[in-house]
Amino acid sequence: MEGARSTALLGLFLLLAGALFDAEGLYVAGVAFLGLAGLSVAWVLTGVRGLSIERTIGARRVVEDEPLLVELALATTYLSLPTCSIDDALLPEPQQVKGGRRHTTVRVSARFGRRGRRVLAPPAVIVRDPLGLSSRAVTGTHAQEVLVLPRIEPLVVPGEGEGDGGSVARRLRPGVIQSAEVDVDGLRPYREGAPASRIHWPSVARTGEMIERRLLPEGDARPLVLLDARAGTEPGAGEALDAAVRAAASLAVHLAKAGGCLLLLPGDRRPSPLEPTLAAWGHLHARLAVVEEGNAPPLAGLASRRGPILYVASRVLPRPPGVLAHAPGAARFLIVPGAWGARRPAFTVSGCSGYDMAMARARRRAA
Q1: How many Cα neighbours within 13 Å face the side chain of 345?
Q2: What pLDDT digit, counting tens, does each position of 106-161 carry?
Q3: With contact defined as beta carbons under 8 Å apart, do 148 and 131 qualify?
Q4: Average pLDDT taken over every residue of the chain
Q5: CA distances from 36 to 29, 42, 260 (A)
Q6: Which domain does 194 fall in, by range?
Q7: What span, in angstroms and rounded, lies between the C-alpha atoms of 45 and 183?
Q8: Both 168 and 308 in a single domain?
C-alpha cells in the first residue's frame, strides 16, 4: 500500500500548505488526494475480504519434462471475486483473473527440466485498485513438494540407431543365468536327492546320520549398474551429474527388462536387485532423483565379480577405474558424460557414452 500512503501524505502536505499560505485551491487538491488514498485502500480491503486460494497438484512425483497438471482455485465468501492476479512459482508470470464470480479455477501444465526435490511456496492472489495505488496479497495455507524423477532414455548403438540396444543386451544376457553353488556354508541334514558329492562323510561316521554340506551361491552374475556421483570442478558439473543419473536409470530399466540387474547407488554398500517386473523401481527411481555429489563408491570385491559391470561416472575419468581395467573375462563398460577422447563408444544414452573395456584390452593386446 505504498502508493496509497504516498498519496495520503501528498494530500496532507497540500492541506498544510493551503493553511500556511491561505490558498483555498490547495485545500481542494489535498482533500482530493486524501479521498483517493482512502478509496484505494477501501477497494483493496473489500476485495480481499473472504478471499482464499488453494493449489492442487495432480501428482507428487513427475518425470523430467513431463507435464504436471496443477489447479489454482480462487474463492470468496463475500459478494464476488475482485479483478486480481495470481502469483505462483509454476506460472511464468502473474496471471490476471477477472472478477464477478464467487469462485474460479486456473489450470496450469507445469514442466520441470531437472531432477530433484522441488518445494513450492504457497500461491498468492494479489488484489489492486484500478489506479494501482494500493495492493494486498492473500497467500495460500501451505507449501507443497514435488519430486522430479530422472527420465528414462533409449540406448543408441552405432550402426543400429535408437532402440533397445540389442547388441549390448546380447553381451550382457549370459550374466543373467542362475549362479552355481560352490562355497561351503556349514552342514545340514541330508536331503533326499542331493548329490553324493555333498555328503560329509566324517560326520556320517561320527554320528551315524546322513549329513551334507550346505553351500553358498557363487557371486551374483546379473549385470551391475554402478553410479559414481563424484562430480568434477569444471563448469557444467551439475549437468554432467544429471546426465549420469539419467544414464544409470536408463541402463537399470533396460537391463531389468532384459532379465534383471543390480543397481549400486552412492552411499550403499550393497547393490539393490531390480527384477524384470520392476517391482522395486519406484523406490530406486525416487532415490536417483535426489542423488547428490558424493564420495567414491565401494569397489571392494567387484574386480573379481564374474557378472557384467557398467560403471557410470559423473565426469570424464583420466583412466578406467581399477575395477574395470583389471577385470577377468566378464563384460565391463565405462559410461561417462559426453565423449571419452577419440575412442569409439559401444553405445550412447542420455548424453553419455559407453565404452567396452574388454574390447579396449583386446585391441591393446593385438597392437
Answers
A1: 21
A2: 999 999 999 999 999 999 999 998 888 888 999 998 899 999 999 999 998 877 65
A3: no
A4: 82
A5: 10, 10, 73
A6: 182-217
A7: 79
A8: yes
